[in-house]
Design goal:
This protein is α/β, with parallel strands linked by helices. It has one domain: Roll (2,3-Dihydroxybiphenyl 1,2-Dioxygenase, domain 1). The protein is about 20% helix and about 45% strand. It has two helices and eight strands. The strands form two sheets. The protein has a four-stranded mixed β-sheet with strand order 1-4-3-2. A four-stranded mixed β-sheet has the order 5-8-7-6, covered by helices on one side. β6 and β7 form a beta hairpin.
C-alpha cells in the first residue's frame, strides 16, 4: 500500500490496528522506501506514494487481516478514530468488520481464516 505520509501511517496502524513494525527503509526527502508491519503470522508491506506510479496511489489499497478477538480489535480501531466502513457482521463462516485508515485504504478484519 502507498501513503502520502507513510511515517504517520505506520504509527497510526500500530496504534489503531495493532500492527508491529518489523522494518522501515528510508527513502529520499523523509519518505519511506519500504516498510513491513506484522500482525500475527502475516505481514503488510507499504511505502510512500511515488511520482509516476499511478497504479499504487494512496487511499486505493485493500487488505483482509485475520484477528482472534474481533470485538476487541473493533473497539481499539474505533477508539483510535478509524472510520468504520462496515459494522461487525456475524456469518456462519466467521465474523468481520471493515475500517478505513487515515488515508482511505480499506481494511477488513475477521475471524475467517482461509485454509492451506
Amino acid at each position: 500500500m502507498r501513503y502520502r505520509d507513510a511515517r504517520a501511517a505506520i504509527e497510526w496502524l500500530e496504534q489503531a490496528f495493532g500492527f508491529e513494525r518489523q522494518v522501515v527503509y528510508d527513502g529520499p526527502d523523509d519518505t519511506v522506501a519500504h516498510a513491513e508491519l506484522r500482525y500475527g503470522d502475516g505481514v503488510v508491506m507499504l511505502g510512500s506514494e511515488r511520482p509516476g506510479d499511478e497504479h499504487r496511489r494512496a487511499g486505493r489499497g485493500w487488505a483482509y487481516v485475520v484477528v482472534e478477538d474481533l470485538e476487541a480489535h473493533y473497539d481499539r480501531a474505533k477508539a483510535a478514530g478509524a472510520e468504520i466502513a462496515d459494522e461487525p457482521v456475524v456469518a456462519d463462516y466467521g465474523s468481520f468488520y471493515g475500517a478505513r485508515d487515515l488515508e482511505g485504504n480499506l481494511w477488513s478484519f475477521g475471524t475467517y481464516r482461509p485454509g492451506p
